[in-house]
Amino acid sequence: MTAIDSDTGPADFGHLVQPHRVNRRIYTDPQIFDLEMTRVFAASWCYVGHESEIPNAGDYRTTTLGLRPVILTRGRDGAVNVLLNRCTHRGTVLAAEASGCAKRFVCPYHGWTFASDGQLVAVPFPADHAVEDRSTLSLGRLATASYRGFVFATLNAEPEPLDCWLGEAREAFDTIVDRHPGGDIAVMGSPHLLEFVGNWKLSWDNAADGLHATFAHESYNTLGEMGDTKTVLARDPGSTPMVSKAMRNGHMVVDQRPGIPQGPWATMRRVPFREPLETALVDAGDEGLLDLATGSMINLSLFPNLLFVGNQLLVIEPVAVDRTRLQLWLTSAPGAPPEIDLLRLRVDEDFVNFGTPDDLDMFERVQRGLSIPEMEWIDMSRGLPDSDAADGTIYGPITSEAPQRRYLAHYAEMMTTPAKTRAL
């Protein structure tokens, strides 16, 4: 215990984020949260959607990037655009729906009209509002790039190329996508939305935490045992050959495959309609595809907002310093028999209902604990010392906190030396 360190003082991230511990302020200080929305979320490549969600010209989906409302849309030329969802006249949000199809975005306040690529195309009663150069009043655009159909955007004025930013994480990314027939993956419908009273980084701390499942998910593991299934979570995490990887730019991987040589489907406990769907695949000679119905057993986290967990995309959406929204998107395998996607729905429901609530409860308990100002420090020393491989990746057991230390070091660097951000 130490004397109280006021949350209102200037943030020295070299002090707040140390090699073996971090200060509570990075989870509780509203001023730090405000800085994160620009220095981390605006300056990073952030996931904004999948190309399968906007297959046709004019299709769009709305989301956020560090509290900024944005629109993911496909232009008439087929190009994917990410636009700031803000009219350049008086600042009105243009698209209020979660998704749709529109040839034009028309401001509901004063009728300014923009094309699907953001260009200003019409101003009502132009004689009263002469615009000499419409291009200067087009919607703000973000730098946009895709990898394997996944769309990322950034406001960084000089962003690192997306492939370089992904770096070593591309191996896991490719493995997740390539397990689908023809490498064809799509995003289903609308997301499952969850919120918790806690800081967004608590989700990130948990993403590569291989120790918590033994304790936080005890009830889920017990349900598996009652059904004669030893789930992948119900084992001694210290003795498993599963591996964690901490990579450049805050990316993380937990590879569970070495601990399940019998394959992912063998770890899946009973779910509704499993038997008839499984039988149909076996009768058709497609039993080799059953592993597609559950996850790849690779948890990939792309800092700061995208997690691949099972067959889900978990998108972290900060709302306030102590409030976070989670979007859970289920992916489909268009090239597989329809029974696979039906099983994915059942598997998705299973952990979301019986496992995810445990995590949210833990996040809220942590946030409450961090409200105690006399206890400044959070220990992050499990698994020290870290040892980098030739490619800069840190490998270790899934009980190591190396992934957390690595992403927090990257976070501290971004917060200390902020990149310039701008709309195109």
Structural notes for this entry:
The chain is of the alpha+beta class and 424 residues long. The strands form five sheets. Strands 12, 13, 14, 15, 16, 17, 18, 19 and 21 form a nine-stranded antiparallel sheet that branches. The chain has a four-stranded antiparallel sheet with strand order 5-4-3-6. The chain has a three-stranded antiparallel sheet with strand order 2-11-10, with no helix packed on it. It is globular and about 75 Å long. 26% of the residues lie in helices and 23% in strands. Helix 9 runs antiparallel to helix 10. Residues 1-7 have low confidence and may be disordered.
Oligomeric grouping of the chains: single chain
CATH topology of the largest domain: Naphthalene 1,2-dioxygenase Alpha Subunit, Chain A, domain 1
Distance between the termini: 48 Å
At CATH level 2, the architecture of the largest domain is: Alpha-Beta Complex
Number of domains: 2
Q: Can you identify the CATH class of the largest domain? A: Alpha Beta
User: How much of the sequence is in beta strands?
Assistant: 15-25%
CATH superfamily of the largest domain, by name, is Naphthalene 1,2-dioxygenase Alpha Subunit, Chain A, domain 1
Summarize the biggest pleated sheet. 9 strands, antiparallel
Radius of gyration: 23 Å
What is the residue-mean pLDDT, rounded to a whole number?
90
How many beta-strand segments? Answer: 21
Count of DSSP H/I helices: 12
- Helix % is 25-40%
Secondary-structure-derived class = alpha+beta
Which stretches are low in confidence, meaning pLDDT under 50 for 5 or more residues running?
1-7
Shape: globular
